[in-house]
Structure formats: C-alpha cells, structure tokens
Amino acid sequence: MSFFEIKVAQAVSITERMKNVGDKNFDTSASALTPAGVLGYLVSVFLGILGVIFVILIISAGYKWMMAGGDAKKIEESKDTIWRAVIGLIITVSAYTIQSYVFGQL
User: Fold this and answer.
1) Domain around 64
2) Is 15 among the domain residues?
3) CB 3.0-4.6 Å disulfide test: which of 10, 27, 66, 88 passes with 32?
4) What pTM does this model have?
5) What's CA 53's distance to the chain center, in Å?
C-alpha cells in the first residue's frame, strides 16, 4: 500500500467512527426503551430546561443592571441574581455531565 492509500483508509475509518459517536446517547430504537434509557432521557430534558432558565435569569438580570440608572440597590440585586444564576448554571452543567457519563455506562 502506498502512503496515499493508507491515509485514505485512515480517513474513511475515522469518518465511520465519527458517524457513530452520538448514536449511543438517547437511541430511540426499541432496545433503548429500558428504564435506564428513559430515565436518562427525562433527566437530560429536565437539566436542559434548567439550563435555559438560568441563562434567561442571567440575561434578565443583566438587562435590569443596565436599566438601573445608577440606583445602587437595583445594581446589587442584579449582581446577586447574576451570581446565583451562574452558580446554578455551573451546577446544572456539572449534573448534566455526571448524568451523561453515568447513564452512558449503563
């Protein structure tokens, strides 16, 4: 085999493996309808909704901060809301990562 043929074969092999990367997560076939698969899907949907809520909180608190007009009380409330939403978002992303690893191993 020539160098070019080896590189083409490696590229095809990598491409075939990359096609199957996401296939094991939340497979909708009949074999994936196990209690662990359904629970993993529901938990990931719940965590996704929580992530969206925290992002919306960050955006709305940023808007309130910009519209505070120099009012120190409103600025502090906005800073607190942003800080708490960021912490919640970090916890949610961490929980999603752990959940995806655990249910991927089942």
Assistant:
1) 32-105
2) no
3) 27
4) 0.64
5) 13
CB contact at 8 A, 46 and 70? no
Q: How far apart are the first and last CA of the chain?
A: 41
- How many other C-beta atoms lie within 10 A of the C-beta of residue 55? 13
The answer to whether residue 13 sits within a structural domain is no
The whole-angstrom separation of Cα 11 and Cα 1 is 15
User: For residues 11-47, b (16+ Cβ closer than 10 Å) or e, as one string?
Assistant: eeeeeeeeeeeeeeeeeeeeeeeeeebeebbebbeeb
Degrees to nearest 5, angle at CA 63 with 73 and 91: 90
The reply to whether 4 falls in a domain is: no
Write the CB contacts of 60 (distance below 8 Å, at least 6 apart in sequence): 81
Find out whether 37 and 27 touch, Cβ atoms under 8 Å: yes
Tens-place pLDDT, residues 30-64? 445 677 778 888 888 999 999 999 999 999 999 99
Of 52, 42, 16, whose CA–CA distance to 103 is shortest? Answer: 42
